[in-house]
Every structure is written in structure tokens, then in C-alpha cells.
Amino acid sequence: MNVHILSPRFEEYLSQKKALIERSLERLLPPVDEEPRIIHESMRYSVFAGGKRLRPVLAVTAFEIVGGQGDQILPLASGLELIHTYSLIHDDLPCMDNDDFRRGRPTNHKVYGEAIAVLAGDALFSLAFECFLGKGMTEPIPWAILGQISHHIASAVGSRGLVGGQVMDIEKYSKDKQLPTLEQTSHLKTGHLIQTALECGAVLAAADQGALAALRDYGQAIGIAFQITDDILNVTGDARKLGKGVNTDAARDIVTFPSLLGVEGARMQARKWISRAKESLSRFGDSAWFLHELADYVIQRQS
After folding, report:
1. To 10 degrees, the CA torsion angle through 192, 24, 287, 274?
2. Contacts of 52 by beta carbon, 8 Å cutoff, 6+ apart
3. Residue 244: what pLDDT?
4. How far apart are CA 253 and CA 172, in angstroms?
């Protein structure tokens, strides 16, 4: 597999945006000493356990590409990370994927118990929608825009999005061993929220329909490529780098891209989606340089 060397510009941009998001999350989350302390401690435990902050960074990038300025994007971007963290807490539960480790640390329910873990996820979910509806924003945003954003995100995490994809995964829809089924599952449980992050960042900056369509296409493509890479790393990755177990998909008898196509076939499929992602950015020119490099990062990452 050819490895694209990421530029110092990419690394610096990513680092800067992650730092902004970390500070925003710190401001938005309830302090750990506020009662009931255990739930706020549990929420913070998972939010600040590390992570790529991919979804909020994508929202910020889309906002900037279409001409958005200022920091009103940060609460929206932070809310997307809260949604993502909620989903990870719930996915790790014994009734779901039953994982003991996440990002190199014991999963939330291993530290706080199942009941608090469930409630921490619920609390993060509700706090996220406070953010989407204006919490922490430094200037008033029209309710029509906030409503549109909230609608998009609610759809992306419901039964026609993240929840639906997780159901397809649990119910092993991919047992039919059909590539379209596997790609649809991946889009719903991973790609839909990534796609929506880009779309909502652009909506906040009043993007035109052509820009929105291009960013949606990019998000769908890198979302599926991201899940393919996750599946490959579950077979070939280093548990210490991943911060979680490997070969867990095989242990749960889950059909994945490597099990269906072979590892090299899965890599070829990821590269196909990455090519599609890059093609969708043609209208933006050099302003989308970060998204071009991010596409390469998605399939060469080791964690």
C-alpha cells in the first residue's frame, strides 16, 4: 500500500483545531465537582479519554471552506463530539459490543458501572442538543438555521442513521455476505454522522446547495473508507496503538470488509472510496487542501 506523507501544514492545522475543540468541550461540560458528581465525572472520563476529534474538526473545516468566520462553530462542533462519545459509551456496554477497553483505558461501564455509563451517554446526548440549539454560541444564530442543523443531526443518529447501523451490526445483516449491505451498515453507523458534521458546518456558514452536495458526497465516501480501515485494523492492528482489543470482530462472528474481500481487497475498496471523496472536492480548489490530506490520513492511520 502506498503511504502518503502528511504535510506539516496538515499536522499543524489538525493540532490547532483539536486544541480549540478541547477548550470548547471543557467550557461546555458541567464541572466535575457539580452534583451529582459521579455523572459529571463519568461524562468527562469518556469525553477526555483522547480521540481524533474527527467529526468536530470536519464541521469546523467545512464552515471555513464555504466562508464561515468566527468561533460560533465551536459549540456545534463540540456537540458532535458529545454525540460520538455517547455512542461509544453505549456501544461498549455488555448488551452491545461488550468491550473492556477504549482508547487504552477501561471502558466507562468498567469504571462507573453499567447504570451510570448508560446515564452518562444519555446526558451527553442531551447536552449535545443544547449546543446545537445555541448553548455556548457567542452571537445569536437564527432559529431557522439552528433548527435545520438539529434536524440533520437528529436524523443522522436515529433509526435511519447511527442507531439503525448499530442494529444492522448487532443483528448481523452482513451475514448475507453482500458488499452493498456491508457498505450500507458502515454508512449508517459511521459515515452518516461524519457526513452530517460537514453538512452542518456548511449550513451554519450559509453554503449554497452545490457546496452542500459536494461536502455530503465527500462525507459519505470518507465515512465508509474510515469503517473499512477500522475493520482492517481489527485484523492487522496493534492493540497498544489502537487502545482496544483486536480480532474482536472474528470472535463475535461479524462479517467485515476483510473477511468478505480479504485484507488487500478491503484496502482496494477503501482506496476506491477515497478517490471518490477527493473527486467531490473539485469545486473548492485549494481551499479544500485539508480535506484532501485528511482522506489519505483516514486510510493510512494506525489507530
Report:
1. -30
2. none
3. 65
4. 9
Q: Is the pLDDT of residue 5 over 80?
A: no
Cα three-residue angle 163-199-63, rounded to 5 degrees: 135
175 neighbors 255 (Cβ within 8 angstroms): yes
All cell numbers assigned to 114: 453499567
Q: What are phi and psi of 212, to 5 degrees?
A: -60, -45
pLDDT-based confidence at residue 241 (cuts at 50, 70, 90) = low
Residue showing cell 471543557: 26
* Structural contact between residues 111 and 167, judged by C-beta atoms closer than 8 angstroms: no
Task: List, in order of start, the domains of the chain with CATH numbers.
Answer: 8-300 (1.10.600.10)
Per-residue pLDDT reduced to its tens digit, 145-204: 999 999 999 999 999 999 999 999 889 898 899 999 999 999 999 999 999 999 999 999
Angular region, 35: left φ>0, alpha ψ -120 to 50, beta rest: beta
AA letter at 243: G
pLDDT at 1: 47
201-229, pLDDT tens digit by residue?
999 999 999 999 999 999 999 999 999 99
Higher pLDDT, 300 or 58: 58
pLDDT for 251 beyond 70: no
Q: How far apart are CA 19 and CA 25, in angstroms?
A: 10
CA torsion 168-172-178-181 (nearest 10°) is 0
Name the pTM for this structure: 0.93
CA distances from 31 to 40, 126, 175 (A): 7, 16, 45
Measured between alpha carbons, how far is 204 from 213 in angstroms, rounded to an integer? 15
H helices present in the chain, as ranges: 8-28, 37-47, 54-65, 73-91, 108-112, 114-132, 143-157, 162-170, 179-186, 192-204, 209-236, 239-242, 248-251, 257-261, 263-279, 289-300
